[in-house]
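Risk register update: the risk of archive-format incompatibility is retired. Evidence:
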Amino acid sequence: MQLNADKCKKMIIDFKRNKHTFIPLIVEGAELSVVNIAKILGVTISNDVKRNAHVTELIKKCRKRLRIF
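Archived output:
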């Protein structure tokens, strides 16, 4: 299986008080960008593993369908 460097992202989930510095991940000569929020299989996940981002996305989607602004 080959990874597409343009579509891949890196999320760091770290609960330590002292944040670690990780070496950059390189795929096909390109460094992967670090994101705080990612959507995987319809579920929005944030790096602090809270539901706030997912609930916000669901509310936006429901408002669009119900035409409530």
